[in-house]
Specification:
- The protein is an all-beta fold and 143 residues long.
- It has no helices and twelve strands.
- It has one domain.
- It is elongated, with a radius of gyration of 23 Å.
Length: 143
């Protein structure tokens, strides 16, 4: 998606002649997600839910901990998108598909996610854990 910045076209008449002037047009390409990865790095007892973002020129790396409600839950990337030049990632807890015996207690599921963009990464990030904003303008943990 291209966005045009600074297009100005002017017309002036001088003694019956028409001259056209055109200011320089700068086209800026919006960020496009080209690759992503998501890894669960560990599970431990606890009740901590947080996220942080490291933004570089063409990559965003998220590290975080989401709270699970049983010993079997894990985390996955539910989805991601770019809205108004802000990157939004949703992480959710899920039960495994197998018939494993699970103990009901709070767990901290630690994850790492990487997102590669072209031509450059968005400079604002929001992270959502199970429908709750944990990083971004609408969170109390704005790190």
């Amino acid at each position: 998606m291209l966005r045009s910045i600074g297009t100005v076209v002017g017309f002036a008449t001088t003694a019956g002649s028409i001259s056209t002037t055109r200011a320089r047009t700068n086209s800026v390409e919006s960020p496009t997600l080209v690759d992503r990865s998501f890894t669960v790095e560990g599970v431990a007892p606890g009740n901590d839910s947080r996220a942080s973002a490291n933004i570089s020129e063409d990559e965003i790396e998220l590290t975080g901990t989401i709270t699970g409600s049983s010993s079997c839950q894990t985390a996955q990337l539910a989805g991601c998108c770019i809205i108004d030049e802000e990157f939004v990632a949703a992480i959710e807890t899920v039960e495994p598909d197998d018939e494993e015996v699970c103990l009901p207690h709070l767990t901290e599921i630690t994850y790492r996610a990487r997102f590669q963009f072209e031509p450059a990464s968005p400079q604002r990030v929001t992270v959502i854990h199970d429908d709750r904003v944990v990083l971004g303008p609408d969170s109390s943990n704005n790190t």
